[in-house]
Each structure stands twice: as C-alpha cells, then as structure tokens.
Amino acid sequence: MTTTFEAQRAALADVVAIPVTPFAEDGTVDQDAHRALLRRLLDAGVTTLTPNGNTGEYYALTPEERRLVTELTLDEVGDRAAVLVGVGHDVPTAVASARHGAELGAVMIMVHQPVHPYVSQSGWVDYHRAIASAVPGLGVVPYIRNAQLPGARLAELADHCPNVVGVKYAVPDATRFAAFARDAGLDRFVWVAGLAEPYAPSYFSAGATGFTSGLVNVAPAVSLNMIEALRAGDYPAAMKVWEQIRRFEELRAANGSADNVTVVKEALASLGLCRRDVRPPSRTLPEGERAEVAAIAAGWSA
Predict the structure, then answer these.
(1) Which has the closest alpha carbon to 39: 55, 24, 17?
(2) Chain centre to alpha carbon of residue 124
(3) Cα(144)–Cα(85) distance, rounded to whole angstroms?
(4) CA 140, CA 167: separation in Å to the nearest integer?
(5) Which of 99, 163, 233, 289 is most buried (CB neighbours < 10 A)?
(6) For residues 173 and 51, what is the distance between their CA atoms, to the nearest angstrom?
C-alpha cells in the first residue's frame, strides 16, 4: 500500500517549533531544562517540533549531542506532537540521523541546506534523493535557502521520492517564493514559511500554510495567535501580531542574523527558563542589549 503521508502534511500546516538547545554551566546539554522547555511548548498547544534545527544550534552540536537532542525530544513528546528531526552534513551522516529518529518514533525529517561551497542544481537533487530514498517511510522536508534553485528541481526530486511532502522555504523574497512554489507544484507540497513570523503573512498570501518559529520558545501564545489569524485569512489580525513581534525579530535579524539564537535564549534566561549560553560562532548578547529583550519577553508573559 502506498503511504499518503496525510498526517505528516497536516502537521506541517501549522506552527513548526524549532526548540533551543539549553546548555548547563559546564557547557553540556542541560537535559532537565531541555525537557522542561519542550513540556512548556506542548502544554501551550504546539503540536509540531523540529529538534536539531538552526535555533537549536545544530551546527554547534557534536554528533553525540545531536543524537541526545533527538532522543530527549522524542522521549518527552511521546504521542503529543509530530517530530521532524533535523538532519544534514554528508549523506551517510544524514541517513544515519534519519534512521535513528525513525527508530525512536519521528515521522519526518527536515534536511538542512547542504553546507558545501559548491552546490549544483543536479547535485542538490542527488543529495536529497539519496537521503529520502534511504527512509521511504518518513516524510521529508527540504530546507531551501538557495535562491538560485528553481522549482522544477524540487518537482524532479519528488518524482523520484514521493515521501518529499513539504518544503521549508527560507529565501527572503515573497515573489520568488510564489514563483518557486508554482513551478514546483503549489498543491503538491505543504509550503512552510521558513523565515518564521516576520515573513509568514506575505508567504501565506502566496500559498504557505505553515511557518517555522524560534520565537515560539519564548511566547507560544503569540505564535499560535498568528497561525490562527492566517488560517482565517484575517491579515489585519496577523499584522497586529507582526507588529507585536517586530522589534524582537529585528534584533534577531540584525547583522546578518548574528544574534538569531542569542536573542531567543536571552529572552528565555530573563524568564528564568534556561541559561543564556550559546556556542561559537554565536555569542551571548552584550549587557546593554539584554534589558530590551527582557522587557519584550516580560510584556508577552504578562
């Protein structure tokens, strides 16, 4: 029987949370804090999570830590949410990570944009095809950050791998997204706005039905309010949320998103939920900027 991946598709048409990876004072993964943050998301009504995403500092984790994050997440989540595990690096590593997640109950994988200085279009297809073909029972979600990739290449990939069911599109250009989605097949995939809440309204207007979020770690209700407004087609209400989160997201996006994770962890630290520590090449937020982040977070939790 052919797998339809209906449940996976439905899970992507939502707020796709990218949990942080909290660190203990000794620099290791703080397992207790990690579980507590996951429970906070689940209790708030978040039903789709991506461990080992960029907000989780994927590239700063060791292979053993990435496995640990996957194990902690799937154990804590149980059947309360859909989990798509972030995988990447070389093909054997990505496949091993995908199979590890599947063994523990993950239903999907998100394949990180290849971190290679020379990515050809056909090579992009080959890379994702090798991974997707190795785990035919998992839904596969490519994470697309390459503005040069045409939609036809995604369609080519899906012709070979029907388990490619969704796309995390993270090129900061709503017009390009609209064209890419239609060239690939607007109704063929679930389109997830991969640049989170700031881009969600414009991407939803062009066909997205879900968005990723790091902000959701801090203020789950804010992210859920936005998805509800967008689902209802209430763009004025969605833009009210956009205005509410604008400054927070501007701080994250400044200087080429240098403090993308840092700002989220600073907000969590101000709420007493985890330490502010991040790993290089990220940095902790300078003292002078911490008060502004704390004030924003306090306003959301009031």
Answers:
(1) 17
(2) 20
(3) 16
(4) 8
(5) 163
(6) 26
HEC profile of the chain? CCCCCHHHHHHHCCEEECCCCCECCCCCECHHHHHHHHHHHHHHCCCEECCCCHHHCHHHCCHHHHHHHHHHHHHHHCCCCEEEEEECCCHHHHHHHHHHHHHHCCCEEEECCCCCCCCCHHHHHHHHHHHHHHCCCCEEEEEECCCCCCHHHHHHHHHHCCCECEEEECCCCHHHHHHHHHHHCCCCCEEEECCCCCCHHHHHHCCCCEEEECHHHCCHHHHHHHHHHHHCCCHHHHHHHHHHHHHHHHHHHHHHHCCHHHHHHHHHHHCCCCCCCCCCCCCCCCHHHHHHHHHHHHHHHC
Report whether the peptide linkage leading into residue 281 is cis, meaning its omega lies within 30 degrees of zero.
yes
Q: Hey, which residues does 189 pair with through a beta bridge?
A: none
Angstrom distance (rounded) from CA 273 to CA 103 = 30
In 3D, which of 70, 76, 8, 69 has the Cα closest to residue 42?
76
Residue 225 token pair: 């309010």
Is the Cβ–Cβ distance between 270 and 298 less than 8 Å? yes
Which pLDDT tens digit goes with each residue over 77-91? 999 999 999 999 999
* Antiparallel, parallel or unpaired: β 48-49 and 82-87: parallel
Straight-line distance from the first to the last Cα atom of the chain, in angstroms, rounded to the nearest whole number: 51
Task: Look at phi and psi of residue 116 and say left if phi exceeds 0, alpha if psi is from -120 to 50, else beta.
Answer: beta
pLDDT (tens digit per residue) in 183-227: 999 999 999 999 999 999 999 999 999 999 999 999 999 999 999
